[in-house]
Write a structure and sequence with these properties.
single chain, about 120 residues, two-stranded antiparallel ribbon, 2 strands
Length: about 120
């Protein structure tokens, strides 16, 4: 009896799988990329503002001004400050020592901000 159910389940999957792929292909429509579809869809709340004018803290520590759209972000549970990142790699580094990196990024931001008339 169990073998019969197993066989029927496999048959049902084989029948359904080709239609799933076809539905996925047509859902892309005429779009040339997948940045707004499925797991590749990125989401950045419109009014989300992070510390350091949305510059990547790890970039600041390195001396680079890397502006972000805040789609990758971290909110410190202690002080509710939000930090925005350009890449998941920056976020992972930051999460290792958030207080240390936040302090170092603040120091770098003040140094860069003080040295540039464009801010």
């Amino acid at each position: 009896m169990a073998y019969r159910c197993f066989g029927l389940c496999i048959l049902a999957l084989i029948t359904v799988l080709p239609t799933l792929g076809a539905a996925e292909e047509t859902s892309m429509g005429s779009r040339s990329d997948a940045t707004d579809v499925g797991i590749w869809k990125s989401y950045a709340p419109k009014d989300l503002r992070g510390e350091f004018d949305n510059y990547d803290p790890i970039g600041l520590i390195s001396g680079a001004l890397i502006h972000t759209d805040c789609s990758i972000n971290y909110t410190d549970p202690d002080d509710n400050k939000t930090y925005c990142f350009n890449s998941a790699t920056s976020l992972v580094y930051f999460e290792n020592w958030p207080k240390t990196y936040a302090r170092r990024a603040a120091e770098a931001f003040e140094k860069i901000k003080g040295g540039s008339a464009g801010f």
